[in-house]
Amino acid sequence: PGPKSLEARGMEDNLPVNVREYQELAEKALPKMYYDYINGGAEDEHTLRENIAAYGRILLRPRVLIDVSKINMSTSLLGYDMSSPIMVAPTGAHKLANPEGEVATARAAAACNTIMVLSFASSCKIEEVASSCNAIRFYQLYVYKRRDVSATLVRRAESLGFKAIVLTVDTPVLGRREADIRNKMIFPQPGNVVDLMSLDNDLGAEGGSKLEQFARETLDPSLSWKDVEWLKSITSLPILLKGIVTAEDARKAVEAGAAGVIVSNHGARQLDYAPATISALEEVVKAVAGAVPVLVDGGVRRGTDVFKALALGAKAVMVGRPVFFGLAARGEAGARHVIEMLKNELELAMALCGCRSVAEVTRAHVLTEGDRI
Ligand code: FNR
């Protein structure tokens, strides 16, 4: 069963006005198994709800009578300019949402002049994505049991002009996503990694989801700080560590030579009851103490969420599900519209808070629960 696009249903004049509406359209457009895979989180989905709810508990402190006739949202990361601090998070298998898959997403990112992080589980070949547009791309990697596969992927990414490696460190084993288990989730398209490992795409799982079995066979639970050293030794690209939510690990990441830290709980798909990322951000920012940029992802659904993340010290945010929902509803145009809506909302929040540039967004513009106690 393929997703039905919005256009196919004659609704192009009636575009969604926010991310939530895109989510509703995506739910209608996608087979349940795919929607659940995209939307779902680990176990009780406590962290999934918290990623969003915690943003709701942070209030804004607007400043008035400041000339906001010109707002500049642009920023840069590792020397690469972006039109706003809103990036595309690595999420796997975009062909589940649209036949053009990651190529469509990359074009949307390029049109919005932002950075896309391509997932290891891309359903389009890395080469295809690289040649489809001139978006700045980072490549997301796991360290596999088979180090040669990880090394090959890094070399491919390097030679195709990817600008950084995003090493996901919160997945030594796969979190328990019960919807996928219940639905016996399978991926219809073989991805890059399946190709490389010469794995049979029909992994023949019994009971659990095939994703679980794939993870068991490939992910290395012995992953440690030594592997970060190893990765540094095989590439000259900067390495960002994705999946850090504590000050302790943030300090270690800087010591290990990470070029950036991404506060993430994998969209609440790994450890349930891990903290909401916006709640963990400030602790990490303090520990990193400006040594490297700190990014955050998880639960960003509004421009005001982006504003709050900036105020608490993030250099930029990444969005995962919202882009996926846009892609499912309207293909490339939908993914692009989602990013543009978030940008417009951020611009509005900045104007109403009296901030003319991202540098002017400060800690004093937000009130967290901690501040109110
Ligand atoms: C992910 N995420 C993810 N992360 C990663 O490092 N590699 C991956 O392949 C994937 N795949 C993936 C698939 C899907 C469907 C989702 C929803 C998420 C996590 C992702 O990069 C990011 O951390 C979260 O999506 C951020 O949360 P929001 O924006 O989805 O709330």
From TrEMBL:
SUPFAM superfamilies reported for this sequence: FMN-linked oxidoreductases
Subcellular location field: Peroxisome
Entry superkingdom: Eukaryota
Entry cofactors: FMN
A GO CC term assigned to this protein in UniProt: peroxisome
A Pfam family: FMN_dh
Principal location class: other
Binding site for glyoxylate: 37, 142, 177, 242, 266, 269
Listed GO biological process terms: defense response to bacterium; hydrogen peroxide biosynthetic process
Gene Ontology molecular function, alphabetical: (S)-2-hydroxy-acid oxidase activity; FMN binding
This protein's record includes keyword Nucleus: no
This protein's UniProt keywords: Flavoprotein, FMN, Oxidoreductase, Peroxisome
Record domain FMN hydroxy acid dehydrogenase: where: 11-371
Active-site residues annotated for this sequence: 266 (proton acceptor)
Protein name from the UniProt record: (S)-2-hydroxy-acid oxidase
Taxonomic placement: Eukaryota, Viridiplantae, Streptophyta, Embryophyta, Tracheophyta
